[in-house]
Amino acid sequence: MKKQLFFFFVLALFSFRAMSELTVSEVAPGVYVHFGQHQLPDAVNQGAIANIGFIVGDSCVAVIDTGGNPAQGYALKAAVEKTTNKPVCYVINTHVHPDHIYGNIAFKQKGVKFIGHQKLARAMSARGDYYIAKAAEQLDIKLTAKHLIFPDIAVKKHMAIDLGGRKLILTAHPTAHTDNDLTVLDKQTNTLWLSDLLFLEHLPVIDGSLKGWLRVLQGLEKQKYKTVIPGHGAIVTDWPTGLLAEQRYLQTLLTEIRGMLAEGRFLEEAIELVGYSEKDKWQLFEQFHKRNVTTAFAELEWED
Question: Closest by alpha carbon to 46, among 147, 144, 136?
Answer without folding.
Answer: 136
